[in-house]
Amino acid sequence: MTAQEVRLCGLLLREHFGEVVEKVGTHLVKNGAQNLRTIIHETGLSLDLIKKSLCVLVQHGVCVFRSGRRGPGSPTEYRTCPDLILRILRYPRYIYTAKTLYGDTGELIIEELLQRGHMTMSGTVKTVADRLTQNMEEGRSMDYNEVTSAFSKLVETHFLQRCPPMAAAAAKTDTATPATPATPGTPAAPVSTTLPTPESFPDCYKVPHVTLIGRGKRQLSTEDGEDQRNAKRPKLDTENHGDEGIYWQVNFERFHLHFRDQAIIGAVANKLDQTSSEIVRTMLRMSEVTTLPTATCTKPLSANEIFKSLPATYNIPRPILDQYLTLLVDDPMEFVGKAGESGGGMYVVNLNRALANLARATLESVVQERFGSRSARIFRLLLRKRHLEQKQVEDFAMIPAKEAKDMLYTLLSQNLVQLQEIPKTPDYAPSRTFYLYTVNQLPTARMLLQNSFKTVANLIERRLFESSNSKRLLEKSQRIEAILASLQASGAEPEQLTEVEEMITAPEKQQLESLRLHINKLDSAENQVDETIFLLESYVNSTATSTS
């Protein structure tokens, strides 16, 4: 973990769970696995606060616990998962994707599970049905069966998965350490640090038979303070629905595969046309179940299979499809490759090559935005030619010598370009040494990834600072909005509503509007930087899996 990642983890924990949870979580991120006594001693917090903080972290899946490193019987140790903490940044994107694919019901299911960590299917269905009923017209309500159907679709497409059962997870952990007692002077067997994944357990994507009959209930309007207190209390459900003890969580990896596929489809549409992107979309959809998440390319598909699976709206004749496939194979980006000649030709989508090209385009875009189009031309030239001397850069880029020299040294100072010395003699004399400029894409992508983490952390800090400066005004606005909502629900006169609205003065309204506009811009910037983080992370991870 780098310092920027630790800082971003702390800010995300503080924003979503408060300062106490942030202190415990950041301490575990920095120091690794620790037992309860050590955490109390080093953080200085009370036992009760630390227990509650650990419960929050475990509930949301960002903290795991197991027997200590000294073997069975040693104190339980707690360890955070920094990658899962950083995924909090992507929560809005998960929710928006669920809304796009499965409508408002899918959106609320994902939102509830992200907000609460994990829930049973029956509890999720009831909560979502109640929320949807609350926003419907008077006299209408949401049927539990409709929400259950949407939940089942999310499970079938692997966007939701069962949480690993605690007993099974403990058994898997215990089998990693032998049960024989350690003799004096003999070090204890090391505890396996690999966590059991949900996919390693049977019935990970099996929907239980839930007996839920009824419709969502509309919440009765009460005083605002009472509503807030009731919302914080756990709702006790004494009915049995057949899924007791079976908890569900969001499958982040499945969402990431969807984001990766959408990025590839969008790149093909920008480079070629909409029909080419639809062909690639069809290939990815056909192979999404059979292709492993770490695979370098999809399973081979014949041209006949692709032709039969194309959407009905794309009425493409078979010869035209063959021409499009040939065009995709011959394209320098190499998103699609040919794997054989049977069945009219076997084709694959080169996933790792596509991610490398997307990361390369991101690097080029960053250089162009920061240093201008001429520097981007030099950077693009070095990516293509690999190694060039300064005179060659000037000639190929068609840039005057003085300007090219300044641009190269600027890129070199920012670690975007590297200088490699190749001596003719062992003494490294400058007159007998070749100085070659080059771009190492992977280290440059890693550096840009760290800069992106720093940027997001700065954006979050700025947003929190803006909100804290206008805290009194925001609280006043929320109170007035709550009063207006309760008056409208009780059928108040228009004069009463106008009188309440006038409690906020014109300058305060202007200040509120300016603040909301500023915060919306910061939120939008966070989401845009997160897209860059996702692309670069996917590229770095793909290179790690392909070399291992």
From TrEMBL:
Spans annotated as Disordered: 172-200, 215-240
Its biological purpose: DNA-dependent RNA polymerase catalyzes the transcription of DNA into RNA using the four ribonucleoside triphosphates as substrates. Specific core component of RNA polymerase III which synthesizes small RNAs, such as 5S rRNA and tRNAs.
Keyword Nucleus: yes
Biased composition (Basic and acidic residues): 227-240
Oligomeric form and interacting partners: Component of the RNA polymerase III (Pol III) complex consisting of 17 subunits.
Taxonomic source organism: Scomber scombrus
Any GO molecular function: single-stranded DNA binding
Single biological process term from Gene Ontology: DNA-templated transcription
UniProt GO cellular component terms: RNA polymerase III complex
Record localization: Nucleus
Name assigned to this protein: DNA-directed RNA polymerase III subunit RPC3
Superkingdom field: Eukaryota
Compositional bias annotation for Low complexity: 172-194
PANTHER family: DNA-DIRECTED RNA POLYMERASE III SUBUNIT RPC3 (PTHR12949:SF0), RNA POLYMERASE III DNA DIRECTED -RELATED (PTHR12949)
UniProtKB keywords: DNA-directed RNA polymerase, Nucleus, Transcription
Keyword Transcription appears in the UniProt entry: yes
